[in-house]
Amino acid sequence: MKNRKLLFIAMIISAGMICSCTDLDAEILDGVEITNDGSGSSIPVESQLQTAYQGLRTYQDQARSHIVSEHTSDAIVGPTRGGDWDDNGVWRQLHVHTWNPLNGFIRDSWNDILSGVFNANQVLENNPSPQQAAEARLIRSYHYYFVLDMFGIMPFRELGSPLTQEPTFFERAEGTQFVIDELESIINDLPDRMDPTVANKDAARFLLAKLYLNKAVFMADNPAGPYTFDAGDMNAVIQNVDAMTNTLATDYWDNFVPNNSEISPEIVFASRNIQGGDGGNVQSRWRMGNHYNQSPDGWNGFTTLAEYYDRFDPNDIRINNPDADALTNSGYNLGFQIGQQYGPGGPGVGTALEDRNGNPLVFTKEISLLTEGSTLETAGVRGVKYKPDYDNIGSPDNDYVLARYSDALLMKAEAIARGGTPTGGDTAESIVNAIRARASQAAITGSLDDIYAERGRELWWEGWRRNDMVRFGTYLNAKELKSFESGPERVLFSIPAGALSTFPQNPGY
Amino acid sequence: MKSMILKRLIFLLIFLSGGMMSAQITVSGVVSDANGPIPGINVIVKGTNQGASTDFDGKYTIDNVAEDAIIVFSYIGFRTQEVAVNGQTTINVTMSENAAELDEVVVVGYGSVRKSDATGAIDAIQAEKFKEVAAASPAQLLRGKVSGVQVTTASGEPGAGVNIRVRGSASLRSGNNPLIVIDGVPIDGGNVSAGGASPFGRTAPRNPLNFINQNDIQSINILKDASATAIYGSRGANGVILITTKKGRSIEPSITFNTSFGVSTLARDIDLLSPEAFVSTAQNDPNITVNDLGGRSYDWTDVILRDAIQVNNDISISQNSERSSYRLSLGATSQEGIVKDTGLDKYTVSFNSNTKYYDDKLTIDVNALVTSLKDEAEAFASDAGFTGDLFSAALRWNPTRPLFQPDGSYTFVDNQSNLNPQELLDSYKDFTNTLRILGNVSATLKLGQHLEYKFLFGVDRTTSERKSQLLPTFDFQDLAVTDPDSGEERLGRADVSTTNSFSRIFENTLTYRNTFWNDLNFNAILGYSFYDYNFDGNSVIARGFVESQTDLINNLEGAVQTEIRIDDPDDGNRFNEVFRNSYDVQSFFGRINGDYKRLLYTATFRVDGSSKFGENEQYGFFPSVGLGYKVFEGEEGLLNNLKVRGSWGITGNQEFPVNSAVEIGEFTGNGGFATVTAANPDLKWEETTSFGIGVDFSAFSDKLSGSIDYFTRETENLLFIKTLEANQPGPSVRQFINLDGTLDNSGLELSLNYNVYQSENLSFDISANAAFLGNEVNIPGIFEPTGFVNGQGLSGAFTQVIATGEDLYNYFLLDFRGFDENGVSLYTGPDGTPVSDGTAVPVLIDAQPLPTVNFGFSTNLSYKNWDFNTTWYGVAGNYIYNNTTNALFSRGVFNAGNNVPGDIANTDQAVGDPLAASTRFLEKGDFLRLSNVTIGYNFNDAILETLKLKSARIYATGSNLFVITSYSGFDPEVDAATAFGRVSQFGVDYLSYPRSTNFSLGLSVSF
């Protein structure tokens, strides 16, 4: 009797102990665990490389590094229009150089660019082929160029190190040398340029030319200057540009139309967008300035400045292209839009547009940081840098240009003007005028001032203006809507406040 | 001499072995209350597990009782009685209900004690008190009734989520709600209803207590301090709410039927300009160009609001016989929301039974609850942004502009910031259906006189599906997709998402009870539990439909484009795609407690291991100690009872998403493969060390009773997400880390109950409670923005920071100083003078959004068969940031042709003055709310006799009748239940679903 009772009790207790005592390992049911030690043979390197390429799309966004840096130059301003575009003053702060470490767009640029570096690292940690490794390193180097240019220090993670380990960083000079060495070592493993959206030898040469040209800036003891340009570096610039296989496109706008990568021999490296499919935010390049009542409608935000607009010949095709499609569908010329705007069909055919308050939609050159009154919505000259893809406005085909051959040629001209040895019979003047001739513009000299001005015209709104202004020493000067000279710390952006637990702040902030 | 010593020795021996050697007798008797014998009363020999339950006739018999033993008669809801046997063989007892507070039995983790024997801070609310409050959800029953517990509903929407804070906020992230345990089984408090996405933002989390019918609850017990909650280990840091459901009680089958019918309307309105006022204000101002002066009539409340009806019916049948008891209840609730086309329908079936076998040696308990919820919602996103949602569209609409054109079509202005509220209301549909099954079975086995073993197995299964659609006739920005075949642009969008969750719990406990030396009562419990949680889900978004399609939800294949990926980098939970996750928790726990004469003692420990924690930190240890001393007990005169108690303990919090400790990669759908979590193998629980002392007392012949508590809580290893910036180069997903430093909370709680007058026909009681709370952030080097606001021109703007040495969520704003002569806002500049040129910077303001005082009181008056109850609650010391006014109501907005309150239209503000986050929109949030007024009538015995009823009560209730506050927004209770970015949001008024005032009539009868 007692035994049976005990047995019964024991059975119940043991029944209670089933399904217990586990080892508590985390179970991953909907993904793949990444161990970062090269043993993950199930993780496809090609797919990781795809993700690394997609990281280059950040430059297409209107609130990330290319446009954010244009705001700090003399090329773009984002005025506050009453209730629109105040955003806690972040855009105005960029223009007048009063940003602080809490600025959200500087922070987002930092995060996007460095995540791009991380995604490239993931490829390198996963047994890539030599060409895959070279492509990932090129992508990483493109990102690192902008980190060096904008922030100075270069955050870095050893391959295979765990994510709980704090990242380290290179100082600006060391980082510059690191990227130069890296690019020189991968050139042979990169493919020739067939498709500019794939990393190629020409892209590596382009970046090397950029780095050698800016080496004096990146390695200067005082980031605000003065800079001493070494002749050897200038010759390296010329050498790299000469080795590139591109040619200038016959039509400037071939670089910015929906099928640009296919038809333009000038594009060195681009970020691919697929019509109707996957892509970045290249449509921001026409939406950011257009008014709500235009077609395609826009965000009525950014404009160029009067002094920047005045440096152009008003008929320069680079800013005034009477493209038939653009006139029919949008009612304006590609480039800068000024004056009365019209609906599809253009002047004389389309309706004269009005703003949301019933005032005529006339874009004026005059602009202020806080617009008001009758020009609240209309102040400022707008820009359309890429031709809208009228076949699919929301998901366009235009690939975003990351590097262009005319930029490389202008770099060669500048290198010659700064003491490099000319090659191939070119002089600074001949190169500058070849580029101007393509836009049917009259000849000018090849002085450094003229090269600087021509870079501002040829490469408007392409994300290089800030870098140029720093190198030519005009970045801190007073400009339109900023009547004072900025402090010398402003040649570098502040490191975002959230990163200061790991990285040191730039001096002066 | 020798024999004397021997005799004394023998006496000594007999004396020492008194407990074991005294004569054993059989004791029996009848237990009744005022109405007659009661079955099911627990009759236990104190210090043993020997006992019985009374039978049909209230009779009990216990064999082998020591002559000097004490017999305890107890049952939840009755006053416990102890009677010394003293050799008697017949002991009859009369039990009384309405126990004085200190004699109440309160449920603690894994057991129950009398409140007077508890060493922890525990509050209990019994079912009788619920009659006074017709609450939309059980969580609201607690409002204003329990000191130190603050209950805020996220909005006025039926079924909206609640924030329950016990003794302040100990966590920076959103895991601040207490653990909820129903009949001994912890339930997942997380969001089990499908989330998904719609064009109008995420849905707010739903209330986890939506699944229970208020009338099925017998008592709610709140465990507040560590000595009570530490036994729940890594989930007890925020307090524990124990809910006990009703069980069968009467001899004959008892049927209870409750019905109620109510109406709700908008509680408070804002004074927007009427059409006439709009026209005249606009005409008087030469700077404003206003469209559409037409003299039409428009009132936003007519367009989107209505008077809503609630109907609630439930019926239950229960019986308690000698060996078994059961209760079955069915409930159906239909609750319309005051916004048109919103509401919650709820159907519940609940069953429990308790059966004893083998001479009461084996007891089997079964509990089951099945709930089906049907939730209908509208386009409310708590968003006062550029596009906004239905609410902001209705407020903004120019009152002179007609909603319909003469040909019957909707007036269209633009597809971005001037949406037609009538068209949006008609074009948007959103349904969520949830089915939840909660069940558990337990077997309790008595092993000998002192030992008891219990095995519990519980299940919690939920399936939920959310379907929403926006018709293709509604033009809304960014919704257009191009049909690749025809090149046409198509509008319309439909979202379908499903979530399933399944959890199991196995628990084994061994309980030992004994009394030593007649004075030392000793209870011990040892347990092991295993908890397993699984959840998965998937979602689809379909875009681009032909215009004539009206049923998009059931015809997703008609879309141009379908997606199953919704990227939401702010949402740590990744609910919006296809996913499957699981985690386990296994724990060992134990407790000893009891009393020795006047000294009370409790000690608990728990060892918790979870697979969510990093592999380097998998187990946590959570001990606690509580001591109490009864200074006076049962004295006559001024001070009748006085007990002092103190406790210390460590509890934990593990509210972070699964798989935060490991690195996972996923295919991204466009050929890529990316890392989607950032591993942290050192990730562990948050730890809160609490210390508290308290006094429970009753005085003036038990007329006045109450408690005073002082506590401190220090939380370390706070769970937080590392900034992306600090982890670069790194994945573009955030890493969970534990912070250095601590978050400190401290406070004083008071609760009093005063029986003002008591006579046969008339009685009057007042209860009041108050809690004074304070906090401080002691985390080195933290300066985390929070309190993000949304609105046109405000993206990225924030109003609060978590900063070292400051209050939690301290406000950080531009300091507004008026307008300059041009109407541009002036803010304090870097040198202290007011400037309007854009150089002003935000500063720390001496204000914060968490109340420093929470208080409540209720009055209960009963006269003969009538009763009249009121409940009030309120807060003080907090400030609210009025995002609604900041974003929607400014001169610039008025200038663009939108409606604003009259005082805004007439300010000196310039039309182009930008909207910035400043102290202009910071208002005091103090309020006092009349939460409930109830009048009830209990039918008298004569009527009951004729109708053959056991009891009947008819009542009328008004809820949220008025609120006294200086806040200018819709309602001063604004805590959003969603977390923006990395931390919870408090104190920012995001224009959520408006709150309502409710009147209802009800009837309860039992047969």
From TrEMBL, chain A:
Compartment list: Cell outer membrane
One GO cellular component, as annotated: cell outer membrane
Xref: Pfam families: SusD_RagB
Domain RagB/SusD: residue ranges: 385-476
Keyword DNA repair: no
First-listed, main subcellular location of the protein, grouped into a coarse class: membrane
Keywords in alphabetical order: Cell outer membrane, Membrane, Signal
Superkingdom per UniProt: Bacteria
Protein family: Belongs to the SusD family.
Protein name: Starch-binding associating with outer membrane
Organism: Aquimarina spongiae
Lineage of source species: Bacteria, Pseudomonadati, Bacteroidota, Flavobacteriia, Flavobacteriales
Automatic annotation (TrEMBL), chain B:
Keywords associated with the record: Cell outer membrane, Membrane, Signal, Transmembrane, Transmembrane beta strand, Transport
Location, primary (coarse class): membrane
Coiled coil ranges: none
Cellular component annotations (GO), alphabetically ordered: cell outer membrane
Membrane topology: Multi-pass membrane protein
Domain called TonB-dependent receptor plug: residue spans: 115-240
InterPro entries per UniProt: Beta-barrel_TonB_sf, CarboxyPept-like_regulatory, Plug_dom, Plug_dom_sf, TonB-dep_OMP_SusC/RagA, TonB-dep_OMP_SusC/RagA_CS, TonB-dep_rcpt-like
Signal peptide: 1-23
Compartments it resides in: Cell outer membrane
Keyword Membrane in record: yes
Pfam families cross-referenced by the UniProt entry: CarbopepD_reg_2 (PF13715), Plug (PF07715)
Superkingdom of source: Bacteria
Transmembrane segments annotated in the record for this chain: none
NCBIfam families: OMP_RagA_SusC, SusC_RagA_signa
Family: Belongs to the TonB-dependent receptor family.
Name of protein: Iron complex outermembrane recepter protein
Protein's organism: Aquimarina spongiae
